[in-house]
Write a structure and sequence with these properties.
The chain has 27 helices and 17 strands. The chain is α/β, with parallel strands linked by helices. It has 2 domains: 2-287, no CATH class; 349-730, TIM Barrel (Alpha-Beta Barrel). Strand 12 (511-514), helix 19 (518-527) and strand 13 form a beta-alpha-beta unit. Helix 3 packs antiparallel against helix 7, helix 6 (129-153) runs antiparallel to helix 9 (196-210) and helix 10 packs antiparallel against helix 12 (260-272). It is elongated, with a radius of gyration of 31 Å. The two termini are 56 Å apart.
């Protein structure tokens, strides 16, 4: 042990006397920090965390590859190591002392960078500071181990510089340390997974942006730890006391052994492609950091209040402050300015009833109906239209939950999802008639993924428990029997529906029940529905039922847009297909094929068209009665059904409510604050309130006077990110 301590003290003294080492260890990282901090616009708050992680990675690479490797070659060429050869000492203490000295010398710059970032740029102090220290330590030791191996296998300073550059530059440029990995081509991102530096970058980003612990980066920790141990062992085996010592050429291949853990991990991640989503998620974190001020806009808060002239400060994805009247200067707030004069700021809209699997139209490409393709496209279309959250009420559970996770992590952009999983319904599957419109046998393949048709109460309860275990946010059931002559099917047995509702309540899951008549609504209320979807299109809701709904606090979602859409579909009316937002949000091939179908007259059925037109009249009347009774209103569209397109249909729903006589403020609150409460997310979304997620829709004009203004979208903000809307449909 005395030898280790003596060598450590010697290393420290020699290093501290070397001004170039001090410069590159402390001054150089700070130069890069301030330079990049000034260049990147989001370098404030959490945004500066990216700069800190970048500089830490650069410093660790330099400390290891240049600091350890080049120093060892220099000592060998100066015959310093030859002097140790005649002493009773092995290479291990020399290597260990070098490792320890480099680690201790690097720790001050970590503390200094965090202090400057915190006090100068407002970066929060990492909660997982121990995990950060451990990640830094493993990174330094692993890189120094690689540096010492490079020193052993090179003969001269010139060779060492060339070989070190071959390792240093790719790890610096391709790992995401200098350029966010998500901005690089996908093949480059995959190549980077074979480099140790990539795991340091993602580890730092996880700790800074997401408060991850070292346990969340277990694979990276294992790889760096293995590299440190294996690298030190190999460096000791290849250690050269003097430049005349030779290494057999085949022994130089040992340098590849130390990269073994990363070859294994890189191959695995190249196969799973999980790194692409991870990189995209961290890029989203960067995009959602920083601060901006939306100034002088009309603010509809979503909870019953309108500020005629105010400003909203967004910082690190959250609403940091709301100002009425004159606002502070944006420069004083260290925020970018977004002009809101003449515009209205709304909370992100929420559609509480969508089907992500169907397209809302017809596609000539059967591949478009695959849930893995149609659901992400639908979520993107919703977000493109300012619908920042939606409840999936009848989609494949596995696919919808996966998409929810991808959107939640930032791997994909789309409306935030609340998932019910497949729809509980009668057999044959009521609520899936749209499948008849799909080409070939596509509908037959989709049917089992979209519905659950239990035969016994225990079947129903077991299915609900299974969905709860899978992680759904609620349960959806169909309690109505179709429309028109030849379209009426069996209704879900009330005993089965009750079993679904009771088990859902036992599992603390809200229950959405789709109804079609006053009897359906009464039964749904009696078995404990959280929300009524569709209400009654056949007959008026009696006052006693309305009183009970108000007393129980049951939410009501009339879904007027689907009634109108069916009337147009069967009436051969393509009027809605020329809407500007529809033309933007719907895939061109789907829109063209749907226009052709409706225009051909093949969908025309005058009697059914008249039936749905009457249904819309009745649905409007019941909506007014429900509102007058004080029942909480929410807004859903049944998007996915024919001519009910994801995103634009919620704007049409708003218009239909106002045409029916509902005040615009009430309709907007149903699509924002009330909807968030129904989804159990009122503490995060649905309102413009300090501390909530920054999900906004900035529109031209005043939708409180002209509800169609919601379609004139100037800006969409999602979790603090100002979206580039056109890019939403380019995601892979």
């Amino acid at each position: 042990m005395r030898a280790y301590l003596a060598l450590f003290r010697s290393n420290m003294r020699l290093t501290l006397r070397d001004r170039s080492v001090l410069f590159f260890n402390y001054v150089f990282p700070l130069i890069f920090f301030f330079a990049f901090g000034g260049l990147i616009g989001s370098a404030s708050g959490n945004g500066i965390s990216f700069i800190v992680g970048m500089v830490l990675t650069m410093g660790i690479l330099g400390n290891g590859l240049w600091g350890a490797g080049m120093r060892a070659v220099q000592d060998r060429e100066a015959n310093i190591l030859r002097r140790f050869k005649v002493t009773p000492i092995s290479p291990v203490p020399i290597l260990t002392a070098s490792m320890a000295a480099g680690w201790l010398l690097y720790l001050p710059i970590v503390a200094l960078l965090i202090a400057v970032a915190h006090f100068g740029y407002g970066m929060p102090i990492p909660r997982q500071w121990f995990s950060l220290l451990l990640m830094v330590s493993l990174g330094v030791c692993a890189m120094r181990a690689i540096g010492l191996i490079l020193a052993a296998v090179t003969n001269t300073m010139q060779e060492a510089m060339i070989l070190t550059q071959l390792f240093y530059l790719p790890m610096l440029i391709l790992s995401g340390a200098t350029i966010p990995a998500a901005m690089l081509p996908k093949w480059v991102q995959t190549l980077a997974e074979f480099m140790p530096s990539s795991y340091m970058v993602t580890g730092f980003q996880g700790i800074f942006f997401r408060n991850q612990s070292i346990l969340d980066n277990g694979a990276a920790v294992a790889a760096l730890l293995t590299t440190m141990v294996l690298g030190t062992f190999i460096a000791a085996k290849l250690f050269r006391w003097e430049k005349e010592d030779k290494i057999a050429p085949r022994n130089k291949l040992w340098v590849l052994a130390v990269l073994g853990p990363f070859l294994i991990m890189g191959s695995y991640r190249a196969f799973t492609k999980e790194h692409l989503g991870q990189n995209q998620g961290f890029y989203r974190d960067l995009e959602r950091s920083g601060a901006f001020l939306i100034r002088d806009a009309r603010i509809f808060t979503g909870d019953g209040k309108t500020i005629e002239s105010g400003s909203v400060l967004v910082r690190d994805g959250k609403i940091a402050e709301i100002y009425e009247g004159t606002e502070p200067d944006a420069e004083t707030l260290k925020a970018e300015l977004v002009e809101g004069a003449g515009k209205t700021l709304l909370p992100g809209l929420i559609d509480v009833h969508v089907h992500l699997t169907p397209l809302g139209g017809i596609s000539p490409d059967s591949g478009d109906y695959q849930p893995s393709k149609s659901m992400p496209r639908a979520a993107a279309a919703l977000l493109y239209s300012g619908v920042t959250a939606a409840r999936s009420a009848g989609d494949p559970a596995e696919g919808a939950l996966k998409l929810r996770s991808e959107i939640g992590s930032g791997a994909k952009l789309g409306a935030q999802l609340f998932v019910c999983g497949p729809l509980f319904t009668a057999d044959p599957a009521r609520g899936t008639e749209f499948l008849e419109l799909l080409p070939g046998k596509v509908g037959i393949g989709l049917l089992p993924q979209l519905v659950r048709t239990p035969k016994t109460p225990e079947d129903a309860r077991r299915e609900v428990r299974g969905l709860k275990k899978a992680g759904v946010d609620g349960v959806a059931a169909m309690l109505e029997d179709g429309w028109g002559e030849g379209a009426v099917s069996d209704r879900l047995d009330l005993l089965l529906a009750r079993s679904v509702a009771e088990e859902a309540r036992a599992q603390h899951l809200p229950v959405a029940i789709h109804t079609g008549s006053a009897v359906d609504v009464a039964d749904a209320v009696e078995i404990g529905a959280t929300s009524i979807e569709g209400g009654s299109w056949r007959d008026a809701l009696p006052g006693t039922l309305l009183d009970r709904m108000a007393k129980q606090g049951v939410y009501y979602d009339p879904m007027l847009s689907v009634a109108e859409a069916y009337g147009r579909y069967y009436g051969g009316n393509s009027e809605g297909l020329s809407n500007s937002l529809v033309e933007q949000a719907v895939a061109p091939g789907v829109l063209a094929a749907t226009r052709a179908l409706v225009g051909s007259g093949k969908s025309t059925d005058p009697s059914r068209a008249a039936q749905f037109e009457q249904a819309l009249v009745q649905a409007r009347s019941n909506l007014l009665s429900v509102w007058a009774a004080g029942i909480p209103l929410v807004m859903g569209t049944d998007a996915g059904y024919p001519l009910v397109f994801h995103g634009p249909s919620l704007h049409r729903e708003l218009q239909l409510w106002v045409q029916a006589g509902i005040p615009a403020a009430v309709a907007l609150e149903a699509a924002t604050g009330n909807a968030a409460k129904l989804l159990g997310a009122g503490n995060r979304i649905g309102s413009i309130r300090k501390g909530l997620d920054a999900d906004f829709l900035l529109v031209d004009g005043n939708p409180l006077e002209d509800i169609t203004a919601t379609e004139r979208i100037s800006l969409i903000v999602f979790k603090g990110e100002r979206l580039r809307r056109a890019g939403l449909f380019d995601q892979k």
